[in-house]
Sequence to fold (542 residues):
Amino acid sequence: MLPIPLSRPLAALRPRYDVVVVGSGYGGGVAASRLARAGKRVCVLERGREYLTGQFPAKLTDIRAETMLSGGAGKPGLYDVRLGEHMHVIVGCGLGGGSLINAGVALKPDGRVFADRVWPAEIRGDLLDEGFARAETWLRPAADPEAASLTKFRALEAAGGALGRPPEAARTLVSFAATINPAGIAQPACTRCGDCCGGCNVGAKNTVAMTYLPDAANHGAEIFTGARVEHLARAGASGWRVFFRPSGGAKEPLAEVSADIVVLAAGSLGTTEILLRSRDHGLPLPDKLGHGFSANGDIIAFGYGARERVNAVGVGHPARAGVPTVGASVSGQIIVNDPDDLNKSLIVQEGVLPSAVGPLLPVFFVPGGRLLGAAHALFKGVYDGPLARTHTFFVVSHDDAEGRIVLKDGRAAIDWPGVMDQPVYARVDAALDALCKANGAAYVKNPLSETVMGAKPATAHPLGGAGMGADATRGTVDHKGRAFAGDGRRVHEGLYVADGSTIPRSLGCNPLFTITALAERMVMLLAEDYQLGFDTAARAPR
Fold:
């Protein structure tokens, strides 16, 4: 039986709330939950639609229908693919944001990341540790107790000698046993179908839509989908006006809702885009806005046709008959920490492609007219032959965060000439080539390099654009997430940012855990400034 929807029709939107939260990923979910618990009238605006358990893509035609290119103004889809001149970005679009389609790996960054002076000094305090503790309680990361028995884990283990390190089980936001989560939601155990990155049709993944958002709704927050926020403006001496259109309704007139507090949490691209348009409409914001974009040293690559079976394609739910389970999207990882140079550290994770993408895989491996054995898969399928022996690698590392988010045709785009010359890509290429050779596989950096994607890097972990800084000459927001007004230290009271856009450098690990911890920290400071109180204890639903 499908769960009860959280979202309401836009017609039910009131003209004013205490708080408007724009976006519903990790930062938006935290803000909505905590401020609703504090007794505030909270409204959440999400441009995508709500996907209930069982409604995520299950076949290739679903994937095609749920893919939108370059943040287009048409009907929103689950996969927002931004094809850029210098770099491509893939983000999630739906109630729950990127949590719906990420691998759900929860890692805390190397301590040297926060020692970087690019952060405001205040960030290096005990409050961030409390933010991580609260994120731990609500997201409940766990390693798969059966990780070491999975074929893809053993394949990574066999290759690990090339990097001089064995793999370890990765902590992911997956419930490996049936449970009642802190929001009072019953979740079944993971079936290890491998479709985490396609959307969990089991209900075992601890997405924001399973945790913080139900808690927000349970405490009175009103959640709306299909609302694309265009820009913000001041409402008199205090308060804010939020202007939006129905998603896909480019010709619809602007509607608006007002609030005392606005929390922007639409992701690095979405939040920066809204702020850039707001500045164009006259809102004073720093010149730093849009700068400091990082791709988090991301690479998604493949090791094609290894000697032994890998099993890196999801089997779906219900699982395909006669196909072995594969595990969660990431079960194992090799962490390479360079003690002398943080920027040379990297993490290699064995990944799984969603089952719905399976029929497309033979097409992926036809670069430059070379079949690479893909013809075999056209007849035998992706669960046998060379594709069953193909690694999927997710890698995170460090870049110099010198990219920039700009408006192109009214939408966010990445401006980063020379990004391909970043040293991170050569380092990761060398590591993956060594791993592939250890298992007799061919390293395929980008199987779509001959298609519309071109030979350009792609990231699923966009960071920055509205980065933290000590003042407006060094950032867009302060350590509390408040947007600077112009070029000094003065801030816009009541305007906060709580998502990956505030992170001023690469993290070198999957960012979801840090984004959640920073959002928890932001709300604690907001509550202190506004003399609010709330608890974070688990509660049964009303």
In short: DSSP finds eleven helices and 26 strands in the chain. Residues 7-50+107-140+207-294+462-534 form a domain with the FAD/NAD(P)-binding domain fold (CATH 3.50.50.60). The radius of gyration is 22 Å. The chain has two domains: 7-50+107-140+207-294+462-534, 143-200+297-400+415-457.
